[in-house]
Task: structure prediction
Amino acid sequence: MRAALATAIAAIVTTMSMPILAQNDLEEITVTGSRIRQTSGFTTPLPITAVTQDELFDLAPGSPVAEQLDALPQFFGNATMERTNVSLTSASGSSSLDLRNLSGNRTLVLFDGYRVVPSSKEGTVHVDFFPTALVRTVDVVTGGASAAYGADAVGGVTNFVLDRQFEGVKISASTGVNEEGDGERYNVSFAGGTKIGDRFNLIGSYERRYIDEFERAPEDVAQQKRVGHIQNPAWSRNDPPGTNPQRITLPNTGTTANSPYGLILNTRTPLDRMRFNREGTALVPFDYGDVSDSQYFSGGADAEIYNLGKGSGVSSPEVETDSVFVGAEYQITDSLSAFAQ
Result:
């Protein structure tokens, strides 16, 4: 047995030591296809989605960047200047990003890798003032990154990466209206960049955006039903599973916590559950409708007040913005650069 094994090893060594003849007529190898993805976000410690400027335009042509990013599945309910139409809120007139509906102050927004001063007291950043004409990509960390960035990155991180080496001129314009024929809008942007010498780059952009206001009453909107979830009055904890749902979906819902005309609660007097009339001259009982629980109700006169109240339909304020950006970068060495903006 040992002799046979030694003979086999000797045969293998002899085979491996045989010279390999090279072909001298091989001049070039051309790779026509590859499955290797060098820019995949999964090669980083955290998964990243990188969206280019052209891809953003395809998501929502002519719309602000907050509305374009809202088309991505990881964003939910980004605030835009058109949507924040309540003039008394501190976020009015600004656009912010919201990853996974965890609130805008839990989404960290970076501009070319640097933190940006918040534009509202909620800690959100107004992203529509960024020079989108000069943005190369928008990198979105699709997982929570609070361990690396801090508590303001619980939802994730969005980084607007500038093309600081941009050269040439770029002009973009778009216009349109909504399907009802109003709310006219247009966007115009100019961007330019030049290289001075071997190490100095200068870039700049000007962007103007205009959106005309419009307002439609709830009765003019077919989808306006104020649908909500209310606890089923027929539900009981002792019901067999699957017999009665705990919550039911009903139209014309409102909250039992307040009223547009003022609701009196928790006084432990006969004034409880009374509200003022529209003129504010008398008190009337609050109408809890056909079905109600501790938080919501459906039907009744007070539900109609919610439905017919100003702003409960579809509306958009007039938006007019102008933004200018100038940036310069000087390459001191191959690994060190200085910039100003």
